[in-house]
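Final report, Chapter 2: Outcomes

The project's central promise was a pipeline that accepts a single protein chain and returns its three-dimensional structure in a standardized token representation, suitable for archiving and comparison. That pipeline is now operational. To close this chapter, we reproduce one record exactly as it appears in the project archive, with the input sequence first and the structure output second.
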Amino acid sequence: MKKSELPKIVPVFPLSNFIIFPKTTVPLNIFESRYIDMINDSMKSNKYIGMIQPNNSNNDITPPKLHNVGCLGKITSFRETEDGRFLIELKGLIRFKALKEIKLSKKYREYEVDFKDFYHDLDDPKEEIKFSDLELIFKDLKSLFEKRGFIINWKALEKQSLNETINALAMASPFSLEEKQMLLEAKDLDVRKNKIAEILSTYTNDIFNNTTLQ
């Protein structure tokens, strides 16, 4: 994808406690009428939608205020079910900064966005981090996942690139909305790896002392 192909305005899907990173693919089950409209419109144009988290500190505001940073995704798979839902797969392309909401007559929300801080998401960086560097992080993450009842195919993850692996774990992790947002906004893979380690350190007592997080 070229910088010149990036849209200036994107429809946004504000989904709480859900993030998508560049170069990762996630399945989505679309059933609300406004988002069915959004997917229909997107399929007719460039197949782009923006994933962004609502800001938890504004629970009483309708529509909810959104975080400043989200990720542009492209619909790579689309299927309509017999009961009218859409099952799609969305591939993360590049993060964006939400500048301002565009007020139109559509049911869903659209934002003017800026990609300039995240152009490096479009690159294919050489991986400086070795898988062995991540083993301790993965060990602690695995303990946390299993304690929370999550099942991860770790062998399959090891076959992916480190970029895909770290981002997949960040997306699937039982971290809070704010923690996931911090991972999304991390400048690059190395920073994201360190942020995961920092977050995990706050869960360490829960993992090893078998206490319950409040």
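Archive annotation: The domain at 3-122 is CATH 2.30.130.40 (Archaeosine Trna-guanine Transglycosylase; Chain: A, domain 4).
This record, like all others produced under the grant, will remain available to the consortium after the project formally closes.
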